[in-house]
């Protein structure tokens, strides 16, 4: 299968747009239901781990999770918090399909 240069350029542009949209989706933040450890002075004896709902970012799949005690609590940063590559790749794939569908619909009209 041979891709024309224009079509290849369009695919590359769609992929760049998908990566950009996926990274920008980290600004869509929500809390829980996943739990993260936040201290170790809980429980009846005061020596059990403490858990709280995690702040997470990314849409439609959350891929960035706040890491209490390491980063600024309540704010997400790529280099300080937990980044899950699998959900990030899924986000990129979803946005890639959406961008390709939008371009295809535009070309059909």
Biggest sheet architecture: 4 strands, antiparallel
Count of individual beta strands: 4
Percentage of residues in DSSP E strands = 15-25%
Query: Would you tell me the overall average pLDDT?
Result: 86
Strand order of the largest sheet: 1-2-3-4
Instruction: Give the end-to-end Cα distance, rounded to a whole number of Å.
Output: 26 Å
Q: How many DSSP helices?
A: 2
Indicate the percent of residues in helices: 40-55%
Task: Tell me the series of helices and strands, N- to C-terminal.
Answer: HEEEEH
The gross shape turns out to be rod-shaped
What structural category characterises the helix and strand content? alpha+beta
Radius of gyration: 19 Å
Outline of the structure:
The chain is of the alpha+beta class and 109 residues long. 40% of the residues lie in helices and 18% in strands.
What does this structure look like?
This protein has 109 residues and is an alpha+beta fold. It is built from two helices and four strands, in the order αββββα. The protein has a four-stranded antiparallel sheet, with no helix packed on it. Helix 1 crosses helix 2. It is rod-shaped, with a radius of gyration of 19 Å.
């Amino acid at each position: 299968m041979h891709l024309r240069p224009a079509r290849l350029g369009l695919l590359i542009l769609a992929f760049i747009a998908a990566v950009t949209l996926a990274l920008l989706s980290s600004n869509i933040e929500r809390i829980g239901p996943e739990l993260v450890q936040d201290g170790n002075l809980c429980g009846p004896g005061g020596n059990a781990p403490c858990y709280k709902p995690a702040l997470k970012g990314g849409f439609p799949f959350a891929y960035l999770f706040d890491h209490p005690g390491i980063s600024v609590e309540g704010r997400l940063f790529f280099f300080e918090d937990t980044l899950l590559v699998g959900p990030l790749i899924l986000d990129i794939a979803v946005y890639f399909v959406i961008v390709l569908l939008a371009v295809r619909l535009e070309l059909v009209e």
